[in-house]
Amino acid sequence: MTDSPDEHELLQEGQISSAGTLLSRPEVEAVLAERFPRRPYCLVEDWLLFHVDEPPESLARVRSVGLQPMFLYSHCVIYDSEGRFPPGGWVRSTLCKTYDGVCMFETRNTVYVLIGQGREQTASLKTIFALF
């Protein structure tokens, strides 16, 4: 990730989201075991959901393969069940497969659990990928 002031500002922008959970880690893990058994998961905080702003035909192509035009970025990984992302590090997801509107953001490979308050904003793919 580059360190330009514009990119840092973008990562601090966005509407405060009402989503995110305040459940404890054992409570979150119990929900994950029930809803997403044996799936890799990552607990994140200080998160930002990007809603992709692209032409309708581009968004339709994403949806046609069973994905949603959304990405997750987190400034702080709390825990990754597979050890891929170090605690305290940052992570950006691939495209969203499902999002429950609260705290479970699923990609093809990982279920991200949004802990605490975060933000949501709209951005182009060019802008989103320029950040990482």
Write the layout of secondary structure elements.
Elements lengths: L4 H8 L2 E2 L8 H11 L5 E12 L3 H9 L5 E11 L10 E2 L5 E2 L4 E3 L4 E4 L4 E5 L1 H6 L2
Q: What is the helix content?
A: 25-40%
Number of domains: 1
| Average predicted local confidence, pLDDT | 88
Our count of helices gives 4
Strand percentage: 25-35%
Whole-number radius of gyration? Answer: 14 Å
- Return the string of H and E elements: HEHEHEEEEEEH
Show unreliable segments: 1-8
Oligomeric category: single chain
Largest sheet: 8 strands, mixed
Note the gap between the termini: 5 Å
User: How many strands appear in the DSSP assignment?
Assistant: 8
Structural class: alpha+beta
Shape by Cα distribution = globular
Short description:
With 132 residues, the chain is an alpha+beta fold. It has helices at residues 5-12, 25-35, 56-64, 125-130, and strands at residues 15-16, 41-52, 70-80, 91-92, 98-99, 104-106, 111-114, 119-123.
